[in-house]
Amino acid sequence: LSYVLILGITISSLFVYYAQISKQVEQENQQAKLTLLNQLADNIDNKASYADQMVYSVAMNSQLSLLANGYASYTYNDLFADLKSTYQPSYLLTFFVYMQSNHQIVTSTTHMRAKEFFQYMYRLDDISYEKFADTYLSGYRHRQFGSTIKLTYNGKSVVAMPYVQSFPINSILETQGQLVILLDTSDIMELIG
User: 68-111 pLDDT, tens per residue?
Assistant: First the structure.
Protein backbone atom coordinates (compact mmCIF):
# COMPACT_ATOMS: atom_id res chain seq x y z
CA LEU A 1 0.00 0.00 0.00
CA SER A 2 2.82 2.45 0.76
CA TYR A 3 4.36 1.76 -2.67
CA VAL A 4 1.04 2.51 -4.34
CA LEU A 5 0.75 5.71 -2.28
CA ILE A 6 4.29 6.79 -3.24
CA LEU A 7 3.55 5.97 -6.91
CA GLY A 8 0.29 7.96 -6.74
CA ILE A 9 2.06 10.97 -5.21
CA THR A 10 4.82 10.76 -7.85
CA ILE A 11 2.33 10.56 -10.73
CA SER A 12 0.23 13.43 -9.38
CA SER A 13 3.42 15.49 -8.91
CA LEU A 14 4.32 14.80 -12.54
CA PHE A 15 0.90 16.05 -13.67
CA VAL A 16 1.30 19.25 -11.63
CA TYR A 17 4.86 19.71 -12.94
CA TYR A 18 3.67 19.08 -16.53
CA ALA A 19 0.89 21.65 -16.12
CA GLN A 20 3.37 24.26 -14.85
CA ILE A 21 5.82 23.58 -17.70
CA SER A 22 3.00 23.64 -20.23
CA LYS A 23 1.81 27.01 -18.89
CA GLN A 24 5.35 28.41 -19.01
CA VAL A 25 5.86 27.17 -22.60
CA GLU A 26 2.56 28.76 -23.62
CA GLN A 27 3.58 32.08 -22.06
CA GLU A 28 6.96 31.97 -23.83
CA ASN A 29 5.21 31.11 -27.10
CA GLN A 30 2.89 34.11 -26.69
CA GLN A 31 5.88 36.33 -25.91
CA ALA A 32 7.68 35.07 -29.05
CA LYS A 33 4.60 35.83 -31.15
CA LEU A 34 4.38 39.32 -29.67
CA THR A 35 8.07 39.92 -30.40
CA LEU A 36 7.56 38.74 -33.98
CA LEU A 37 4.59 41.08 -34.43
CA ASN A 38 6.63 43.98 -33.03
CA GLN A 39 9.46 43.21 -35.47
CA LEU A 40 6.95 43.04 -38.31
CA ALA A 41 5.38 46.36 -37.28
CA ASP A 42 8.81 48.00 -37.03
CA ASN A 43 9.78 46.63 -40.44
CA ILE A 44 6.62 47.98 -42.07
CA ASP A 45 6.87 51.31 -40.22
CA ASN A 46 10.45 51.80 -41.43
CA LYS A 47 9.44 51.07 -45.02
CA ALA A 48 6.39 53.33 -44.76
CA SER A 49 8.46 56.15 -43.30
CA TYR A 50 10.94 56.05 -46.15
CA ALA A 51 8.13 55.65 -48.70
CA ASP A 52 6.53 58.81 -47.28
CA GLN A 53 9.79 60.72 -47.64
CA MET A 54 10.26 59.58 -51.23
CA VAL A 55 6.72 60.29 -52.27
CA TYR A 56 6.58 63.72 -50.67
CA SER A 57 9.93 64.78 -52.12
CA VAL A 58 8.58 64.07 -55.63
CA ALA A 59 5.00 65.20 -55.00
CA MET A 60 6.11 68.58 -53.66
CA ASN A 61 7.95 69.30 -56.91
CA SER A 62 5.73 71.95 -58.48
CA GLN A 63 7.24 71.10 -61.87
CA LEU A 64 5.55 67.69 -61.78
CA SER A 65 2.13 69.31 -62.19
CA LEU A 66 3.43 71.22 -65.20
CA LEU A 67 4.54 67.97 -66.83
CA ALA A 68 1.23 66.31 -65.98
CA ASN A 69 -0.57 69.19 -67.67
CA GLY A 70 1.62 69.05 -70.77
CA TYR A 71 3.71 72.19 -70.26
CA ALA A 72 7.15 71.98 -71.85
CA SER A 73 9.17 73.76 -69.16
CA TYR A 74 9.63 70.47 -67.29
CA THR A 75 10.28 67.39 -69.40
CA TYR A 76 10.35 63.62 -68.95
CA ASN A 77 14.16 63.85 -68.95
CA ASP A 78 13.96 66.25 -66.00
CA LEU A 79 11.67 63.82 -64.18
CA PHE A 80 14.03 60.91 -65.03
CA ALA A 81 16.88 62.86 -63.44
CA ASP A 82 14.82 63.66 -60.34
CA LEU A 83 13.78 60.03 -59.91
CA LYS A 84 17.35 58.76 -60.50
CA SER A 85 18.67 61.05 -57.78
CA THR A 86 16.30 59.46 -55.26
CA TYR A 87 17.90 56.69 -53.19
CA GLN A 88 16.02 53.44 -53.68
CA PRO A 89 16.69 50.76 -51.03
CA SER A 90 16.76 47.06 -51.90
CA TYR A 91 13.25 46.44 -50.57
CA LEU A 92 11.87 48.86 -53.14
CA LEU A 93 10.98 47.04 -56.37
CA THR A 94 10.11 50.20 -58.24
CA PHE A 95 8.98 53.75 -57.81
CA PHE A 96 6.94 55.27 -60.61
CA VAL A 97 4.81 58.25 -61.47
CA TYR A 98 1.50 57.62 -63.22
CA MET A 99 0.33 60.54 -65.37
CA GLN A 100 -3.45 60.42 -65.51
CA SER A 101 -3.81 62.71 -68.54
CA ASN A 102 -2.00 60.40 -70.96
CA HIS A 103 -1.94 57.11 -68.98
CA GLN A 104 1.86 57.10 -68.94
CA ILE A 105 4.08 55.56 -66.30
CA VAL A 106 7.42 57.21 -65.68
CA THR A 107 10.27 55.51 -63.81
CA SER A 108 13.86 56.64 -63.39
CA THR A 109 14.76 55.03 -66.72
CA THR A 110 11.70 54.93 -68.97
CA HIS A 111 8.20 56.09 -69.67
CA MET A 112 5.51 54.12 -71.44
CA ARG A 113 1.80 53.53 -71.50
CA ALA A 114 0.62 52.07 -68.21
CA LYS A 115 -0.92 48.94 -69.71
CA GLU A 116 2.32 48.14 -71.57
CA PHE A 117 4.35 48.77 -68.41
CA PHE A 118 2.39 46.07 -66.62
CA GLN A 119 2.58 43.79 -69.61
CA TYR A 120 6.33 44.03 -70.27
CA MET A 121 8.09 45.41 -67.19
CA TYR A 122 6.10 44.22 -64.18
CA ARG A 123 3.62 41.56 -65.24
CA LEU A 124 0.66 41.31 -62.89
CA ASP A 125 0.10 37.64 -62.05
CA ASP A 126 -2.86 37.58 -59.68
CA ILE A 127 -4.78 40.72 -60.64
CA SER A 128 -5.84 42.08 -64.01
CA TYR A 129 -4.44 45.38 -65.24
CA GLU A 130 -7.96 46.85 -65.25
CA LYS A 131 -8.49 45.92 -61.58
CA PHE A 132 -5.03 47.27 -60.66
CA ALA A 133 -5.69 50.53 -62.53
CA ASP A 134 -9.10 50.92 -60.92
CA THR A 135 -7.73 50.22 -57.45
CA TYR A 136 -4.45 52.17 -57.53
CA LEU A 137 -4.26 54.47 -60.55
CA SER A 138 -7.60 56.26 -60.37
CA GLY A 139 -9.18 58.53 -57.80
CA TYR A 140 -7.51 60.27 -54.89
CA ARG A 141 -5.20 58.23 -52.65
CA HIS A 142 -3.48 59.48 -49.52
CA ARG A 143 -0.65 57.33 -48.19
CA GLN A 144 -2.56 54.17 -49.09
CA PHE A 145 -1.08 50.71 -48.69
CA GLY A 146 -2.70 48.11 -50.90
CA SER A 147 -3.09 44.37 -50.64
CA THR A 148 -0.10 42.32 -51.69
CA ILE A 149 0.06 41.47 -55.38
CA LYS A 150 2.07 38.87 -57.27
CA LEU A 151 4.28 40.16 -60.07
CA THR A 152 6.84 38.78 -62.47
CA TYR A 153 9.85 41.03 -62.90
CA ASN A 154 12.97 39.99 -64.84
CA GLY A 155 11.61 36.45 -64.99
CA LYS A 156 11.38 36.28 -61.20
CA SER A 157 8.12 35.97 -59.29
CA VAL A 158 7.80 38.48 -56.43
CA VAL A 159 5.14 39.58 -53.99
CA ALA A 160 4.81 43.33 -53.64
CA MET A 161 2.79 45.75 -51.56
CA PRO A 162 1.71 48.94 -53.39
CA TYR A 163 2.02 52.28 -51.61
CA VAL A 164 0.12 55.06 -53.40
CA GLN A 165 -0.06 58.84 -53.06
CA SER A 166 -1.98 61.09 -55.45
CA PHE A 167 -0.56 64.36 -56.67
CA PRO A 168 -0.98 67.21 -56.18
CA ILE A 169 -1.23 66.20 -52.56
CA ASN A 170 -3.87 68.69 -51.43
CA SER A 171 -6.06 68.52 -54.51
CA ILE A 172 -8.64 65.82 -53.88
CA LEU A 173 -10.93 66.84 -56.74
CA GLU A 174 -8.27 67.46 -59.42
CA THR A 175 -5.91 64.52 -59.19
CA GLN A 176 -3.27 64.59 -61.94
CA GLY A 177 -1.77 61.22 -61.21
CA GLN A 178 -0.33 58.82 -58.68
CA LEU A 179 3.06 58.21 -57.16
CA VAL A 180 3.35 54.46 -56.68
CA ILE A 181 5.97 52.47 -54.81
CA LEU A 182 6.01 48.69 -55.06
CA LEU A 183 7.59 47.34 -51.87
CA ASP A 184 9.17 43.89 -51.87
CA THR A 185 7.52 41.87 -49.10
CA SER A 186 9.85 38.85 -49.11
CA ASP A 187 11.46 39.81 -45.78
CA ILE A 188 8.01 40.30 -44.24
CA MET A 189 6.91 36.90 -45.54
CA GLU A 190 10.06 35.34 -44.03
CA LEU A 191 9.15 36.81 -40.63
CA ILE A 192 5.62 35.45 -40.90
CA GLY A 193 6.59 32.09 -42.40
Answer: 777 767 777 778 887 887 777 778 888 888 988 889 898 888 88
Cα 160 to Cα 172: distance, rounded to the nearest angstrom: 26
Residue ranges of the alpha helices (H) in 60-167? 62-68, 76-84, 114-116, 129-132
pLDDT in tens, 139-164: 888 888 888 899 998 888 989 989 99
Q: How many angstroms separate the CA atoms of 95 and 108, rounded?
A: 8
- Which helix (H) or strand (E) covers residue 184, if one does? strand 177-184
Cβ-contact 176, 69 below 8 angstroms: yes
SS3 of residue 6 by DSSP: helix
**Sign of the CA dihedral 183, 187, 189, 191?**
negative
Q: How far apart are CA 100 and CA 86, in angstroms?
A: 22
Quote the DSSP letter at residue 70.
T
Taking the whole predicted model, whether its pTM rises above 0.90 is answered as: no
Asked whether 182 and 88 are in contact (CB, 8 A), the reply is no
